[in-house]
């Protein structure tokens, strides 16, 4: 297992940092936070609104007839669904299991994604960084990408939706994409 550097605030007990460095701790932290620490405020709002819509829809299905119970169940289902489809699960798996990615598949996926990005008129620029950008990517590397939208609310919203769709596409393609 590749060691993930875990940082916790000074006021936090050391055992929390030790737990977060374990497989169960990494999975629990990843499920709970789902990359929210790295999102800007607009991405957080976008994510919370969409997840809330799914929660409200599930609550309307009424699992138990008790509002609090239905909210808890609906949140658990929606949050787990978003974690699977949009939570960088293959990025997480690099730290939990020794997952290797074939270099040709990795490069081909990046090229196809570049063509998709270039075709979007609302994206101003795309910035790749990390080991891939430095030319030092290993077979267990992820692809770190940040998209900058053109000015305007509509461009911003389209870029956020594009990121969400790309994360979902990466999930089904089993590709370790870290995109914001």
Give structural notes:
Helix 3 (41-60) crosses helix 4 (67-86). The protein starts with 13 loop residues before the first helix and ends with a strand. Strands 1-2-3 form a three-stranded mixed beta sheet. With 180 residues, the chain is mainly alpha-helical. It is globular, with a radius of gyration of 18 Å. The chain has eight helices and three strands; from the N terminus they run ααααααβαβαβ.
Give descriptors for this structure.
180 residues, 3 strands, mainly alpha, single chain, three-stranded mixed β-sheet, 59% helix, 8 helices
Low-confidence stretches: none
How many angstroms does the end-to-end distance come to?
25 Å
Gyration radius (Cα, Å) is 18 Å
- Globular, elongated, flat, extended or rod-shaped: what is the shape? globular
> How many H/I helices?
8
| Percent helix range | 55-70%
Question: In percent, how much strand structure appears in the residues?
Answer: 5-15%
Average pLDDT score: 87
Strand order of the largest sheet: 1-2-3
Major sheet attributes? 3 strands, mixed
| SSE sequence, one letter per element | HHHHHHEHEHE
The count of β-strands is 3
**How would you classify the helix and strand content by structural class?**
mainly alpha
């Amino acid at each position: 297992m590749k060691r993930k550097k875990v940082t916790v605030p000074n006021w936090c007990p050391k055992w929390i940092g030790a737990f977060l460095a374990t497989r169960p701790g990494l999975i629990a932290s990843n499920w709970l936070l789902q990359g929210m620490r790295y999102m800007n405020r607009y991405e957080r709002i976008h994510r919370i609104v969409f997840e809330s819509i799914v929660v409200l829809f599930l609550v309307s299905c009424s699992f138990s007839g008790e509002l609090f119970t239905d909210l808890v169940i609906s949140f658990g289902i929606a949050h787990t669904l978003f974690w699977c489809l949009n939570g960088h699960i293959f990025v997480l798996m690099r730290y939990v299991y020794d997952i290797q990615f074939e270099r040709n598949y990795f490069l081909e996926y990046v090229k196809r994604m570049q063509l998709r990005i270039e075709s979007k008129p609302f994206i101003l620029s795309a910035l790749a960084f990390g080991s891939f950008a430095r030319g030092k990517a290993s077979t267990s590397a992820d692809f770190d990408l940040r998209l900058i939208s053109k000015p305007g609310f509509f461009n911003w919203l389209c870029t956020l939706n594009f990121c969400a769709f790309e994360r979902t596409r990466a999930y089904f393609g089993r590709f370790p994409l870290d995109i914001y």
